[in-house]
């Protein structure tokens, strides 16, 4: 089949892959099995950690019709055994004659599938719509390269950079529309993280709620890190989903613990001290700042001391998007890092 046919079937595989979940420890992958006469005999996509991979699902649908067929896969078939067996073995056992994939697997633990297929006598073609496939799994790819969960820091501040008034009150810095927007973004992560200080002072639930106040279908893991104990009646223990305590003040140690739990995307809502610890450690990947048209003149700053003494040392961010949300402004920005400009494997910054 020519390049046109390969692109057509790969686009269908990408459509299937987009149905997969994120956040998830695994990438979103789609597969289409096409017989020699151009008939689609099987389709599949990965439904999340612990479920059959896209290739296995498509091969099961194809049955004996997979023999001599071509499998179009959005990611290089894996060659390792995790919760499921290697997809390369499943493809060879099914008698597939050719495998066309889009993106090479950036995960060193799973890479090498193309070589194994070729060694088994399967014709292999890679790089078909590779950019589209990489874009689909951009956040997953970043976690693989970083070896830790991605961290998005959310803050709410007045025009003069205050997150709370002089008496400590902070509800509400921003308006109802901005708070609803935060809940929508929370739902796209698999953990919400605060420090014990925020948990003790604000007593947040950290759940995701719908506009009508009802619980959202997806509830990120609620995480509190720090050394101070929480009262049994703390509201973070209530509601749907799970809550976890991490007895550490070390941001990297906390991220390592979450990584082992399968967490890949963290929404950081801690106070200024915790936020500063993550920023100073170079562990913030995205920033969502909600700025209210209000002035306090005194009170708690949005972030604590970063050890910066002069303007030339300011930590710069690259602007991604600015939006008006109700009466507030939402700024999405990403930190400018040396690794983002020197490592060609990392995605280009927006």
From TrEMBL:
InterPro entries: APOBEC/CMP_deaminase_Zn-bd (IPR016192), CMP_dCMP_dom (IPR002125), Cytidine_deaminase-like (IPR016193), DHFR-like_dom_sf (IPR024072), Eubact_RibD (IPR004794), RibDG_C (IPR002734), Riboflavin_Biosynth_HTPR (IPR050765). Pathway: Cofactor biosynthesis; riboflavin biosynthesis; 5-amino-6-(D-ribitylamino)uracil from GTP: step 2/4; Cofactor biosynthesis; riboflavin biosynthesis; 5-amino-6-(D-ribitylamino)uracil from GTP: step 3/4. Residues 4-125 form the CMP/dCMP-type deaminase domain. Coiled coil: none annotated. PROSITE patterns: CYT_DCMP_DEAMINASES_1, CYT_DCMP_DEAMINASES_2. PANTHER family: 2,5-DIAMINO-6-RIBOSYLAMINO-4(3H)-PYRIMIDINONE 5'-PHOSPHATE REDUCTASE (PTHR38011:SF7), DIHYDROFOLATE REDUCTASE FAMILY PROTEIN (AFU_ORTHOLOGUE AFUA_8G06820) (PTHR38011). Its cofactor is Zn(2+). It catalyses: 5-amino-6-(5-phospho-D-ribitylamino)uracil + NADP(+) = 5-amino-6-(5-phospho-D-ribosylamino)uracil + NADPH + H(+); 2,5-diamino-6-hydroxy-4-(5-phosphoribosylamino)-pyrimidine + H2O + H(+) = 5-amino-6-(5-phospho-D-ribosylamino)uracil + NH4(+). It comes from the Bacteria. Pfam families: dCMP_cyt_deam_1 (PF00383), RibD_C (PF01872). This is Riboflavin biosynthesis protein RibD. It comes from Terrabacter lapilli. Its EC number is 3.5.4.26, 1.1.1.193. Keywords: Hydrolase, Metal-binding, Multifunctional enzyme, NADP, Oxidoreductase, Riboflavin biosynthesis, Zinc.
């Amino acid at each position: 089949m020519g390049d046109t046919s390969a692109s057509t079937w790969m686009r269908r595989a990408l459509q299937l892959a987009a149905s997969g979940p994120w956040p998830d420890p695994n990438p979103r992958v789609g597969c289409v099995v096409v017989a020699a006469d151009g008939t689609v005999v099987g389709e599949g996509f990965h439904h999340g950690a612990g479920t059959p991979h896209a290739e296995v699902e498509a091969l099961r649908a194809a049955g004996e019709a997979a023999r001599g067929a071509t499998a179009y896969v959005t990611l290089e078939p894996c060659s390792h055994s995790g919760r499921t067996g290697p997809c390369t073995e499943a493809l060879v056992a099914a008698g597939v004659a050719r495998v066309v994939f889009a993106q090479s697997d950036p995960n060193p633990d799973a890479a090498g599938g193309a070589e194994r297929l070729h060694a088994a006598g399967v014709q292999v073609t890679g790089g078909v719509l590779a950019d589209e496939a990489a874009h689909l799994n951009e956040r997953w790819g970043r976690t693989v390269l970083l070896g830790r969960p991605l961290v998005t820091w959310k803050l709410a501040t007045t025009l003069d950079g205050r997150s709370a008034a002089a008496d400590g009150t902070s509800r509400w810095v921003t308006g109802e529309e901005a708070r609803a927007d935060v809940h929508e973004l929370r739902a796209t992560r698999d953990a919400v993280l605060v420090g014990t200080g925020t948990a003790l002072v604000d007593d947040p639930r950290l759940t995701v709620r719908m506009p009508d106040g009802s619980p959202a279908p997806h509830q990120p893991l609620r995480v509190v890190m720090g050394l101070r104990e929480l009262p049994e009646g703390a509201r973070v223990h209530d509601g749907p989903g799970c809550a976890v305590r991490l007895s550490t003040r070390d941001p990297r140690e906390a991220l390592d613990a979450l990584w082992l739990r399968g967490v890949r995307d963290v929404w950081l809502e801690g106070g200024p001290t915790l936020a500063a610890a993550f920023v100073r450690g170079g562990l913030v990947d995205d920033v969502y700042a909600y700025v209210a048209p209000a002035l306090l003149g005194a009170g708690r700053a949005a972030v604590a001391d970063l050890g910066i003494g002069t303007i030339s040392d300011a930590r710069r961010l690259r602007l991604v998007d600015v939006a008006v949300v109700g009466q507030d402004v939402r700024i999405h920005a990403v930190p400018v890092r040396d690794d983002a400009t020197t490592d060609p494997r990392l995605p280009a910054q927006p």
